[in-house]
Amino acid sequence: MHHQPQRTPEADMTVAPDTTHALGGPALPQRRRIHTEIPGPRSRELQERQRAALPAGVGSALPVFVEAAGGGVVVDADGNSFIDFGSGIAVTTVGNAATGVVERAAAQLQRFTHTCFLVNPYESYVAVCEELNRRAPVAGPARTVLFNTGAEAIENAVKIARAATGRPAVVAFDHAYHGRTLLTMTLTAKNRPYKHGFGPFAGEVYRAPMAYAYRWPTGPEQCAREAADALVELVDRQIGAENVAAVLIEPIQGEGGFIVPAPGFLSAVAQICRDRGIVLIADEVQSGLARTGRWFAIDHEGVQPDLVTTAKGLGGGLPIAGVTGRAELMDAAPAGGLGGTFSGNPVSCAAALGVFEEIERGDLLARARAIEATMLPALDRMRQRHDVIGDVRGRGAMIAIELVKGGDHTPDAELTGRIARSCHAAGLLVLTAGTYGNVLRFLPPLSLPQDLLEEGLGILADAFDAQA
Ligand SMILES: Cc1ncc(COP(=O)(O)O)c(CNCCCC(=O)O)c1O
Q1: ipTM score here?
Q2: Which of 5, 37, 118, 294 has fewest C-beta within 10 Å?
């Protein structure tokens, strides 16, 4: 076979103009700088290549191609620097390319990249499980098993609950999001874009009303009690409690619109489960691991679930997920019943240990609470000025506003998109969410400097003032 000339990157691609940021991480200049239209010329070139190489169904909220990221900024291929209010959808919680994550992952890469834990185990997997067991809000001794994605964690939490109870049914909630695999698509509530055309779906999945106070028909005061009554009705009358393996709930619903369940609802759900021997699974994939100012969002309600799922922020950007639960439940899965080729990959485990280190070293739980203390009042002031802001809600650095037609609760998805695009053009990376597409959600990295947080809020305020 003849020798292929060594291809060098330079031969294939012109180096992006004006890309002065070679390295990401906290050393990246923490500033907002926009000096091209958004997306810029280099991103538009890359978009053309993407159109030729990827299926049309893969889209991006802000199609600027990234060259570097760190602290609280994302820098694109045209050298534009954006304030990051997205964290890659609640993943780079401790900061993009965070020092502790990069150093540990880089060192691991030099030692070995993979063994498959089901073949040869390694200490870092055990250490991540110990970290999660130590912090998880479950009662008594805990066990953890690792996977790669949030959906995989949910799939396996349901397997464990079914093995432990011998029951088939799973109850999820309106506005829920749990992933894109067959079972997690079924558990997810919103049809487009997640489910449409991908059926038939999994069996034995049922849905109960979420205690969504802002949209509860009889008003927020009745919300928790009436939603709990509806859950009892579904479980006891329609399914039969003896057939229900698990109730699955996000302590703060993420893709559904950052819905914080009405006060008392999570406690009521936990009691309903305890009274019937039903496993309560808390899906903390988006809300967990310091994001809301506690290790887990459910901690704010003092509720102890039986199983907790984690992913996203756990690996600081590397794919890793976990199911942590009461030891007697976790041990119900038969030998060899839990696993996967890459599950608990050693590089991701090293990164995860870096995440725990960063959270402790930076006191990031307190930082999340400080971000809440800045954002909620600022957003409330915006709501006083603009009646299109129907609701302000969230905890820690998981905050959202719901946009409606002025004066009533009619969702306004068009305005939501317009505000988001205005923020993007001004150099603020924000994401939308919600069953009705009318939620602007804010997920800043906890490493975001305070001045950029306030600058970002100023951009948002200007966007609302401009649309008024
Ligand atoms: C609560 C909750 N559970 C489970 C998941 C699924 O986690 P995976 O790691 O994306 O599988 C999520 C992922 N949310 C972001 C989805 C992004 C997209 O695919 O459009 C979540 O938020």
Answers
A1: 0.99
A2: 5
